[in-house]
Each structure stands twice: as C-alpha cells, then as structure tokens.
Amino acid sequence: KLRELFDSYDTNQNGFLDFSEMKKLYAAQENFGLSPSDAEVESFIRRYAKSADNHVSYDEFCCLMLALAQR
Asked: Is the C or the N end of the chain the one with fewer CB within 10 Å?
C-alpha cells in the first residue's frame, strides 16, 4: 500500500518525491481541522528527508508516513 501511495504522488515517475509532491500528500492527510503553514510542513518533511536535493526517497517516505500515523 505504501508503494502504491508513493507511486501515485510521484507524478514525474523519477523514483523520488520532490517537496511539492510531498506537500500535496501531507495536505491530503488528516490534520485535525488545522491548516499547517508551508514552513511547518517543510520542517516536518526535513526531519526525515536528509538529502540536500529536496527529494524524498521511498525509505524516507515510509518513515514520514509512520510518523504521520503516530501523531
């Protein structure tokens, strides 16, 4: 299921999610009625996306989704 979700947001099909793709995914998740700012979303993503090129790998994506599920 995670791979299917990752692939559905990987619009350019390069095997990575760029920050804009990841922000769309984050916005689609339940945020308890709150609208996080771009800075908040980017801060959350950067906790798990360690590459300097602003891309999220599949492994980083899995860690991000686990963190989202635990909040």
From this structure: N
Residue showing tokens 């800075």: 39
26-71: per-residue pLDDT in tens?
877 766 667 778 888 888 888 888 877 888 999 999 999 998 888 7
Token output for 34: 């709150």
18 has which bridge partners? Answer: 55
Closest CA to 2 of 17, 12, 23: 17
Please say whether the dihedral angle defined by the alpha carbons of residues 29, 32, 38 and 40, taken in this order, is positive or negative.
negative
Cα gap 68→53, rounded to integer Å: 22
- Residue of 67, 57, 54 lying closest to 10 (CA atoms): 57
* Whole-number Å distance between alpha carbons of 66 and 57: 14
